[in-house]
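G., the chain you wanted modeled:
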Amino acid sequence: MDGFNFTVSYRVSISDINYGNHVANSAVLNFFQEARIQYLANLGGFSELDIGGCGIILPEAKVKYQAEMFHSDELNIGVRIVALGRSSISMEYRIERNLEVTASGKTALIAFDYTKRKPRRLPNDFRQAVQQFESLE
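Predicted structure as tokens:
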């Protein structure tokens, strides 16, 4: 997928479908999360609960729905980190079906210490892994 160093494949399941016989709005956020989980694992064995000494928490998500998706559709989901702040991570997502963009979105994530219940700085190992993988400065 052009512009994305990491993609995952996903086949739409019946549990993703709503009363309109298409993918539910809420399911798209689940697709983003699944792609994010796989991206973090690929980046260096990271997870949403451990990016090198802390987890991440999601305070903001934006989704743009561009075409309906249906049961059994084969989707490709691109995910990338586009910016790193002191404690923040900006991610972008694109979902395609046969090269047609069906949805795109962004999430803001914060490095979070779940023991102390507060934000913290991004761990250096995580920052370096992202900078290398995404060619960020």
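Residues 25-44 form the longest helix (20 residues).

Shout if anything looks off.
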